[in-house]
Amino acid sequence: MPFLRSFRPGDEPALADICLRTGDAGSDATGILDDDDIWGAVFVLPYVARHPELAVVVETDDGRVAGYAVATDDTDAFEEWFLSEWWPRFAQRWPKPVGEPATRQDSVLAYAYGRRPGAEPFAESFPAHLHIDLLPDVQGQGWGRRLIAALLERLRAAEVRGVHLVAAGTNAGAIAFYARLGFTRLDAPADVAAFGMLL
């Protein structure tokens, strides 16, 4: 039976792969961007680099990592670190798009280049934020709920007052899932679904 455990160094390739295979509103994003590596570099790897203690994974019987939840306890501090230390190492590989985004890759890169303290409107009331992804073979079995519970326990132990997350507005399964877990829907643009929880 699968089980939860803390993130360990060496899990990064598996986490990047899960991020890719769930990156398109929960569906496989392989081939959507010119470089599949962008997904992990933006949405999961920086979290385990800065906050390995706030990362929990699902490991299967055969030793595969099949899901994760990652977080930061301080969104503005994390975004400052992302802007000044994490993302600059990728500037040569993935230059900043010029003008209005013309492709999906341009949009993701524009998001990455635009991350900075104060850009996230929910951070004042809900200073932490999280990301969670599960491969299809461990979905629908309660692992998402267990991952969130484990992460919330760690955030409460760190005395964080609130946590938020954002999902694609088209990801109906995720939207229903967060509502069932007790997250409150927050005002957000129509193309995204934002949720918050006071801890």
Major beta-sheet overview: 7 strands, mixed
Judging from the principal axes of the Cα atoms, what is the shape? globular
- Number of strand segments: 7
Encode the helix/strand succession as letters.
EHHHEEHHEHEHEE
Secondary structure class reads: alpha+beta
pLDDT averaged over residues: 95
Structural overview:
There is one protein chain. The chain has 199 residues and is an alpha+beta fold. Helices cover 35% and strands 21% of the residues. The chain is built from seven helices and seven strands. It has a seven-stranded mixed sheet with strand order 1-2-3-4-5-7-6, with helices on both faces. Helix 1 packs across helix 2 (37-43).
Question: Brief description of this entry?
Answer:
The chain is α+β, with helices and mostly antiparallel strands. It has helices at 12-21, 37-43, 45-50, 75-86, 104-114, 143-157, 172-180, and strands at residues 3-6, 55-59, 65-72, 128-134, 162-168, 184-186, 192-198. A 7-stranded mixed beta sheet has the order 1-2-3-4-5-7-6, sandwiched between helices.
